[in-house]
Amino acid sequence: MYRHESETVEFKLRIDRQRKIARTLAAFANGQGGTLVVGVRDNGAVAGCRAEEEAYMVEGAAHRFTQPEVAFDVRAERWDGKEVLVVRIPPSERVPHTACEEEEDRWTVYVRRGAANFRANRVLIEELKLRHHGAPRATVDHLALLGFITASDDWTASKLARTSGQPIRTVEDGLAVLLHWNLIQALPAEKGWIYRLA
Predict the structure, then answer these.
(1) 0.90 exceeded by the pTM?
(2) Scanning 35, 42, 159, 194, which has the fewest C-beta atoms within 10 Å of its C-beta?
(3) pLDDT number for residue 98
(4) What are phi and psi of 48, to 5 degrees?
């Protein structure tokens, strides 16, 4: 039994909107996988749920609002004497998965950081693709980018492009390779993503 939310665990009291839960399904599938538990409050308190009804909502979310459709296993369990629904989403080989936005019919790639889902930018999408197409070796240009990123600074792709004099697409491709090799990390910020040494 899980006690708190994390990069691989999310609690939901109930599923009210399928499009919203599709983001979590896609984010888990795009990452290291994860477990969604329905019938548990954000603080970890078990409230219980009608597992069969919630399973129907999860199935609809995956089928209607993720592309390619996210695979998962689902089962009802008893936690603290109450029924909850446990949904396990394995890491996918069909990345990147997208989820349909609630406000508009736009499909967006989501990734998980901490206990939240975030829209992926081009760097993160390219890194997802590298997982299954094979990453190129780090080039001199990639390593030059690494030289700009220091442990004490937060860098955006545009700041790196200005500082290095490289085109933004070249910088984004380089950041994707550096992420793939775990040399840097991508962190969500107020306005986009920042990059730091891993």
Answers:
(1) yes
(2) 42
(3) 98
(4) 90, 165
